[in-house]
Task: structure prediction
Amino acid sequence: MIEVICLTKQFGPKTAVDNISFSVARGEVLGFLGPNGAGKSTTMRMITGFIPPTRGTVTVGGDDIQTAPLRAKARIGYLPENAPLYSDMTVASFLRFAAELRGITGAAQKAAVDKAIETCFLEKVATQSLDTLSKGFRHRTCLAQSIVHDPEVLILDEPTDGLDPNQKQEVRNLIRRLGATKTVIFSTHILEEVEAVCSRAIIIDQGKVVADGSPDQLKRRASRAGAVKVRLRGLAGSGVLAELEKLPHVQRVESLESGISHFVGRVFPTKMAGDGTLAGEIYQFAVGRQLQLQELTVDEGRLDEMFREITAQVRS
Amino acid sequence: MKNIWVVFKREVQAYFLTPLAYVFIFIFLILAMSLCFVFGRFLEGEDASLDYAFFQFHPWLFMVLGPAIGMRLWSEENREGTIELLLTMPISTWQAIIGKFLAACVVLVAALAMTFPVVLTVNYLGDPDAGKIFSGYLGSFLVGCATIALTCLVSAFTRSQVICLIVSVVACFFLVLIGSPQLLEFLRNIPAAGLLETVRLAALEIADGFSLMSHGGRLFGGVLRLDTAVFFAAFITFCLYATSAVIRSKRA
Result:
């Protein structure tokens, strides 16, 4: 549905987005991650046609945003960063304005606006002026604007920014629901959000795509992913560590805690080790040595860890 | 066309659902009327026309009031970030520009329409030339539109309405001043010969040709000329076109 090919944006001498390519299919919810200033917003602004790219192309549903902007833009619903609004309007009149610009008029307009108001929980404030509303309501009004024409593509720049935890949850549920039938790209700083909502995530740093995959795949790229945490009792200290390191699929062992009769450590697998191989080996080892195996956990890897490692790599 | 209408409607609402348009109309009426009766000596003049006493002051008023209506057009979009919403809608930039410009012109029309008592008065007191009054209103309207178009261009550059107001007022002041009778008179009376004479004549032509005052003044006096129509059309078109160029280049 969205094809981004070799997209580059330079602001003067500074390259904000550097040769990014990816595509997003219908039914995919793509999370955009990256440190501040990584180029997330710039990329989204180019996809929505707000700023022209220096190089590269974006097509939305087959229409190039540069050469057929009106057709491409008609497919997109966009929530800009900071959710800008015309403060002199009421929630309902603003949504009617958005719907009318999208070519929805008459009875269809009323239905579309009512539905957007209901979807974003704005019933209570529908007739209020926008400049009297709290940030959460303003944000949701702007979100309502982006879905009022039931678009095929949703581009949301930090949709949960400034919302309280309950509202965050509501918006996440909404994105997940919309994501089933639409193509969604959203950016966020909150990694748990990515796990909760996205079917795929892209990490951008310094204008480049540094990782692209499902949240599970990305988690596995964390250095600790696949490592096994083990707690053994019944035998004294240092010998165990050396013996564990001799196991065929062990790369190295990190001692976390060791005493006279117990050992807690993290065992990292070699690259050859398959899922569960290492845990099995450690179990066999414990049984063979008649040790009491008190804990054996395989680390799934964590997104924040992977995020830190990947973005730190780019910087160094 | 439909998109222009949608933008136009929203902008007109923004003017008339807030105090903006009413404050503007009120101030315009007070200034226009007091200038007319006090400085224009409308009653003492005993002349059944509106051009000297009434319309003659309008370029000086619009020089300040035109920027006052137009200053929010794009600077507010820039400041609030709503320009990002507007320009990612399936409409083109020029549709948004024209819709906004026309909405500001509606405020102008409303203000001019509210001066109708002065037309009734002059008809009651004497027997004025209706065609001349009409062309005076047309001239006043076009001068106002030109100041709004220029302000629209300036507002695209900045996110600050204050900066937009100051810059636009100075620019409009210049455009009104260069055609003021005093300045033209001064240029006409400089003694010069040879090359200097050519420069003097060129300056006179430019001052006369680019001034809102001289083109407006012709219409106030009831003179409808093709070059006046071309001037206003070209001036407004240029300003609006330049606005779209500025908006585009600011995003690149």
In short: The interface with chain B takes residues 45, 48-52, 69-71, 73-74, 76, 78, 80-82, 84-89, 93, 97-98, 100-103, 142, 145 of chain A (CB under 8 Å). The radius of gyration of chain A is 25 Å. Residues 2-219 of chain A form a domain with the Rossmann fold fold (CATH 3.40.50.300). Chain A is about 35% helix and 30% strand.
